[in-house]
Amino acid sequence: MSATKLLVLGIVHLSGGAHGYQVRSELQSWRAEIWAKINPGSVYHALKKAAADGLLTEQAEPGKSGPERILYRVTARGRDEMVELVRDGLRRTHDADMLNAAIAMLPMLTRTDAIAQVNERVARLEAELVEQATWREHPNPESPEHVREQAELWAGQARTELEWAKSLSERLSEGAYTMADDPGSWRTGPRSPQPAF
User: Fold this and answer.
1) pLDDT for res 132
2) Does residue 7 contact residue 105 with C-beta atoms inside 8 Å?
3) So which residues are the signal peptide here (predicted)?
4) Residues 6+ apart with CB under 8 A from 82
5) CATH number of 2-105
6) Is 92:86 a contact under the CB 8 Å cutoff?
């Protein structure tokens, strides 16, 4: 749910306000159902829940040729929650959906903040790799030997992710992407969101 919440808040915010159908269409154009496992029904549920939690406001508008529509806008509390979700997604390991959502909303952070969160992910991955290496060198003799294969797979994935995270930190340090504290960022007004996939 956190990945869906983050993407819904982010798209509503970047749009300057959006209807549920607009949010769903944007996420479909980003193919979020693949990399964040978001289905259309969860988008509407996330919008309603975020509004109930005070993260979004709801404003009824007459439909052009049908029923009334709801226009959602992000509240100050919703912006704070969105930024914290991006931070959490960047530093938390073992949650690919949340990482993908955080990457999609990466420009919500200042450059310094984004680098700090990515560097925390790097430190966590390095520590996990040390722990995995120890486990692989001294496995529990009662564990089936084929379980060790899973550990090899995880270690390979972690090494690849570690290399990617270090590279992202470098690119951000070199000025890649328009971040929240850069001219032309989301803080200076609504922009069209750019898909990360």
Assistant:
1) 85
2) yes
3) none
4) 6, 9, 10, 13, 74, 105, 108
5) 1.10.10.10
6) no
pLDDT digits (tens, 9 = 90+) for 115-131: 999 999 999 999 999 98
Compute CA 27 distance to the chain's CA centroid, rounded to the nearest angstrom: 12
Helix 2-15 to helix 40-52 angle, to the nearest 10 degrees? 80
- pLDDT for the residue numbered 193: 43
What's the token pair of residue 114?
């984004």
Token pair listed for 70: 């709801």
What would the pLDDT profile of 11-40 be if each residue is shown by its tens digit? 999 999 999 999 999 999 999 888 888 887
Whole-number CA gyration radius for the chain: 19
Cα 152 to Cα 140, 142, 148, 174, distances in angstroms: 15, 18, 6, 33
DSSP 96-145: HHHHHHHHHTGGGS-HHHHHHHHHHHHHHHHHHHHHHHHHHHS--TTS-T
pLDDT given for residue 186 in this prediction: 66
Q: Are strands 18-19 and 69-74 parallel, antiparallel or unpaired?
A: antiparallel
Do residues 173 and 114 lie in contact, with contact meaning Cβ atoms separated by under 8 Å? no
